[in-house]
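B., you asked whether I could sanity-check this one before it goes into the benchmark set. Here's the sequence:
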Amino acid sequence: MTPAQALMEEAQPIHPAPTSFWRRYVFSIDHKMIAKQFLWAGLLFLLVGGALAMLIRWQWGFPYRPVPLVGRLLFGESGVIGPATYQQIFTTHGLVMIFFAVTPVLIGTFGNLLIPLMIGARDMAFPRLNMYSFWTFLLSQLLVLASFFAPLGSAGAGWTTYTPLSTNVGMPGMGQTLVVAAIFVTGVSSTMGAVNYITTVIRLRAPGMTYMRLPLTIWGLWLTAILNALFVPVLGSAALLLLLDRSFGTEFFVAGASAVRGGGDPILWQHLFWIFGHPEVYIMILPAWGILGDVLSFFARKPHHWYRGTVWAMVLVTVLSAMVYGHHMFMTGMSPLLGEGFMLFTLLISIPSMVVVVNWVLTLWQGSLRYDTPMLFALGTVFVFGVGGLTGLFLGDISMDLYLHDTMFVVGHFHFTMAAASVMGAFTGIYFWFPKMFGRRLGERLGKIHFWFTFLGLTLVFGGQLLAGYAGQERRLFDPFQYTFIQGLRGLNRWTSYFAFALFTGQLFFVVNFFRGVFGRRAAPAGPNPWHVTTLEWTATSSPPPFHNFDRIPEVVRGPHELSNPEVRRLTGRDFAGQAELLPGDGAAAVAARKG
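And here's what the prediction gave me:
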C-alpha cells in the first residue's frame, strides 16, 4: 500500500454492512441501493409518462373516438378524451418525463451508482444526505400522483407552467398547486444530490485519479451536478413564488385586470423558468454524452479520440448553456439587440457540441466494433442526437424561429434531443451497468429486439412531428384538424400515432428482459468484468460490489481507455488494462520511482 492509499484508507474506513431489512433496502445509505431505488422510481414514472404520450397520440390520430381498452375507465362512459382532460394529459406527460422519469434514471441512478465506484471511493461524501435526496424525490412523485385525484384534475398549463395561465386566474384547483409543489420538492432533492456529487468528485478521488484520468461518464455527471447546483434553485424559487400566488394571494406573476394592487409580471416567470430550462437540456444530455464517450470507446476497442478535447468541449458547453436561454423568448418582444446576442451564443454552442460528436465518430473509425446491446443503443443515441442538434440550428436563428415557433417542429426537435437521446443514452447505461448492479447480464436477443423497436420508433415518431411542424401544424391543439390548412396532415398524424403505439409495445421486451435479469434464476453470473473494459468499477471490485466497494482503495496509474495497446497485449495477452492494474515490471518501476 502506498502512502497516498494509506491516507485515503484512513479517511474512508470500512464500516460493517447493515443487517436489517429496513436499513439494507428501504432507509439505506448505501449509494448502490439508492441508485436502484432511483432506477425503480424512474422506470415506473417512465411507464406513466409513456402511457400519457399514447393518449396524446390517440387524440391526434383519432380525435373524438373512444380510447380502446381504458377509455371508459379513465374518461367516463363515452371513453373520449375531452379538451380539458387533454390539456392535463400533455402537461403531465411533459413534466413526468423530464422531472420524474428521465432525470432520476440518468442522474439519480447512474450518479449514485457510478461516481464512487468509478473514482475509487467507498461511498458518497454525505451518505445520509444521499438517502434524504431519494426520499425527498419520492415525496415529489407522490405529489404528482395525488394531483390526478384532485377535484378539477391535475395540472393543465403546459410543462412550461407559463403564467398567468398557471395561476388561479387560468388554472384553478388543487391539481396545479400540487404539481408546482412537486417541482419545488424535486428541486430540493436535485440540489441535495448535486452538492453530494460535486463534493464526492472533488474530495474522494482515489490516489492517481487526476481530473484528466476521470472516465467521461464522471465528467458528464459532474458537470451536470454543477448545472443543477447553480440553476435548479432558480426554478425552485420561481415555483415557490408561484405557490405563494396560488395559495396566499400574492401577485408576483399576475398583472393587468387580474391584479388588485398593481400586480407583477407574467414574463418574469419565463425568465426564471428558462434560466433553468435551457441548462436543463444539458443537465439531461451531459450524462448521456459521458456514457457514450466511454461505451463507444470500450466497444470499438480503441482509446477515445482526443479525450482532452471532448472534456474541454463538454466544459465549454456547460458554460455556454447558461448564456442561451433567451432564444426561447424571441416572441416575447425582447430587445432586438438582446435577441441577436442570444442567437449568437446559441449558434456558438453548436461548435463544442460538434467537437464531441466528431470525436465519437473518429473513435469508431477503424475500430474493432462489437455490436452488443449497449453499443447498439450508443450508436442509436449518436444518430438521434445528431438529428436533434441539426434541427436546433433552425430554432436558434431568429428569423426561422419566428416561423417555426410553437409548431410541432419545436416538439420534434426537443424530443429528438431531450427525449430520444436522453432515453437511449439511459438504456445504453442500463444495459452496460446492469451486471454491476445485479450481477447478471440482460438477455442479448431481447435487448436487440428492444433496441430496434426503440430506435426506429423514436426516429419515426419524432420525424413525423418535425414534418408536421414544418408544414405548419401548431403544438398543443386539442383537435388540429379544425383548421383547414392542417386537414391535409391527418394521414401523417395517424401514421405517426401507429409508430408511437409500436414504440410503446416494443418496450415490453425490455420489461420482460429486466424482470428476468433481476428475479430470474436461470441467468448465469456475469463475472467481475463481462465487457472486458478498463475502469475501476469493472477491474478493481466484484459484480455486484460489496457494501464498502473496495477491499483496498485502488491507486490509479493510467487513463480510462487503455485499449488495444500492443505493449499491454504482449505483457498480458489481453487488449485492455485496468486503470489501477500494474503490468509486469510496473511494480518495480513504481517502487523505484517512489524511492527516488
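One thing to flag: The mean pLDDT is 93. Otherwise nothing jumped out at me.
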